[in-house]
Amino acid sequence: MFRSVWLSLLLVVSTCAFASSNHIYFLSEATPPYYSLDESGKAQGVNVDLVNALKPLLPFTSSLEHMPWARAYQETHEKPNLVLLSLLKTPKREDKFQWLFAVNHMQAELIRLKRKDVSHISSIEDAKRYRVGSVRGYGAATYLQQKGFEENKNLALVADTSLLWKLLYMERIDFAIADFNTGKYEISDAGYNPDDVTSEYVIEALGADLFVATGLETEQDKVEALKRALFILEANGEYARILNKWGLEPSLAN
């Protein structure tokens, strides 16, 4: 009973925390190089640096929160004043969000352990013979399901990237879908050696730009203020500096 009451109170506090009308909450999942904790427990990454650079340029207060991807996506879709700092723009999502600024281009690849002996993959159909992993709620997961992959058969869906790489290195899956460049950060953060993996196949259909985006409920004055601040960072070179610091290249879509 006490646990039930505690969970109810926690839900109320969480809901109230996102209720301020003059505050923007930037949301990020804990995935490097966008967001992770250093050895002292301090947050670091592209999204941390970006939020710090945006704060003095915005006419309202702001803060950065991290939460599991599926929850962050749903909260931003349904509520105002929440901003996802790294959302892939896909046709299915296009009308559900307001797209503020292109971050960088992501390329989805089937990544495997070098020591794992698999037949050559030349199409997504070939991959159906194997067990493929993705993060639940990711566009890649939806794509695989649309292509006929079935959970608990040849598809494994997990809550976050650390679990994805754990499954791969434990050989519970044959492939993980990820961008190879950013995936190396995730692998290191999960405690594994990125030199142990290789990209087997690029899924061209999943190549897309990663955007800063907010839900349709966010007021237009805040949307315009966010856009102005982001383009200021692009114009003065600060945005490129942040990405380059973390080994990424700016998108050409802006």
List keywords for this structure.
254 residues; alpha/beta; 5-stranded mixed β-sheet; globular; disordered N terminus
Q: SSE layout and pairings?
A:
Blueprint: H1 2-17, E1 23-28, E2 36-37, E3 43-44, H2 46-54, E4 61-66, H3 69-78, E5 82-88, E6 97-106, E7 109-113, E8 132-135, H4 139-146, E9 155-158, H5 161-169, E10 175-178, H6 180-189, E11 197-202, E12 208-215, H7 220-235, H8 238-245
Parallel strand pairs: 1-4, 1-5, 8-9, 8-10
Antiparallel strand pairs: 2-3, 5-12, 6-12, 7-10, 7-11
Helix pairs in contact: 2-8
Report on the architecture of this protein:
34% of the residues lie in helices and 25% in strands. It is of the alpha/beta class. The strands form three sheets. Strands 4-1-5-12-6 form a five-stranded mixed sheet, with helices on both faces. Strands 9-8-10-7-11 form a five-stranded mixed sheet, sandwiched between helices. It has a two-stranded antiparallel ribbon with strand order 2-3. Strand 2 (36-37) and strand 3 form a beta hairpin. Helix 2 runs antiparallel to helix 8. Residues 1-17 have low confidence and may be disordered.
Average per-residue pLDDT, rounded, comes to 89
* N-to-C SSE string, H for helix and E for strand: HEEEHEHEEEEHEHEHEEHH
The number of distinct β-strands equals 12
Number of helices: 8
What level of helicity do the residues show? Answer: 25-40%
How big a fraction of the residues is strand?
25-35%
Shape: globular
- Please tell me how large the radius of gyration is: 19 Å
**Biggest β-sheet description:** 5 strands, mixed
N- to C-terminal separation? Answer: 52 Å
Structural class: alpha/beta
Strands in their spatial order, largest beta sheet: 4-1-5-12-6
Poorly predicted parts:
1-17
